[in-house]
Specification:
Elements: E1 4-5, E2 8-9, H1 12-19, H2 29-46, H3 55-62, E3 88-89, E4 93-94, H4 102-108, H5 115-129, H6 138-149, H7 161-165, H8 170-173, H9 178-211, H10 223-232, E5 235-237, H11 238-245, H12 249-259, E6 262-263, E7 272-274
Antiparallel strand pairs: 1-2, 3-4, 5-7, 6-7
Helix pairs in contact: 1-2, 4-5, 5-6, 5-9, 11-12
Length: about 280
């Protein structure tokens, strides 16, 4: 499986191995970006729902110093960004600061909109204003964070907005007419929800099939823990299983065989398994 990333395709198993420091060849530039995207998503998900939209969260994610800002006189190609909005609460909107950028101005006006519209407008603003040139993908995670903060999606995960958006024609998403762009993003969110429901049903069936293999097992069996791990993680490797289950590498590979997981890499070393 290859996740879509701004026109570039990278092997999902390569991302997992690169993130674990188990590369078997020199990482490509695209793979390094994919790793950074993964870690940013993980960082956002591990924090409170409003963290990504806070001053500290945005500064951390943008990797810019607090003093850097995008002003009217910023030189072309600048990757510095405006001081982030201090906070976001229902009914209050974003607190703009001195020397705020056009993006901050957009955020300051969406506080009274329904959460879905807030996410749509914020994402469109991030894309059209080209807020952070070296991380254009960050806008989608900020949009997902808005939904998470307002309770539209689960508090434990970010909405995978990319899944739905990539089903929408690029001409619609980049159209000169703002209304068409906003409608395209809305259609993408609908597609995301539909894809998520289908994936939920598929994973529920997969879990039921794996649980049948647990019948008659000893209480000390590690298979139930492995089931939980593979349902929570797209791909697992021996090191991850060893650490999570507290077993030896040999025992980790044995439990994988007993559960019948699919090997995803086709390699003899640094293999990974999953149910995707």
């Amino acid at each position: 499986m290859r996740p879509y990333l701004l026109g570039e395709l990278v092997h999902l198993e390569d991302v997992v191995l690169h993130d674990a420091g188990a590369n078997i060849r020199t990482p490509t530039h695209e793979l390094t970006i994919a790793r950074d995207v993964l870690r940013s998503r993980r960082r956002i998900a591990s924090q409170s729902p409003g963290w990504a939209l806070s001053l500290d969260g945005l500064r951390t994610l943008r990797q810019a110093s607090p003093a850097e800002s995008l002003r009217a006189d910023s030189p072309p190609g600048s990757v510095a960004v405006a001081a982030a909005p201090a906070s976001f609460e229902a009914g209050e909107g974003y607190a703009s600061e001195q020397n705020s950028s056009p993006f901050d101005a957009e955020l300051a006006m969406i506080g009274d909109l329904p959460p879905i519209l807030q996410a749509i407008v914020a994402l469109d603003a991030w894309n059209t204003l080209d807020v952070l040139q070296h991380a254009p993908w960050l806008g989608r995670y900020l949009a997902a964070s808005i939904l998470r903060q307002r309770g539209v999606t689960t508090g434990a995960h970010l909405a995978a907005i990319n899944l739905g958006l990539k089903t929408i024609p690029v001409d619609w998403r980049r159209h000169r007419n703002r209304e068409i762009r906003l409608l395209a993003i809305a259609d993408g969110l609908i597609a995301t929800a539909e894809i998520g429901l289908k994936e939920h049903d598929r994973l529920a069936l997969v879990r039921k099939m794996m649980e049948r293999k647990l019948q008659g097992r000893r209480l000390s069996s590690k298979l139930p823990e492995l089931v939980d791990l593979v349902m929570a993680t797209p791909l697992v490797h021996a090191g991850m299983i060893t650490k999570t289950l507290g077993v030896t590498p040999q025992a980790a590979r044995r439990t994988v065989t007993e559960l019948g997981l699919r090997e995803m890499t086709g390699r003899g070393r640094f293999r990974a398994w999953g149910v995707i």
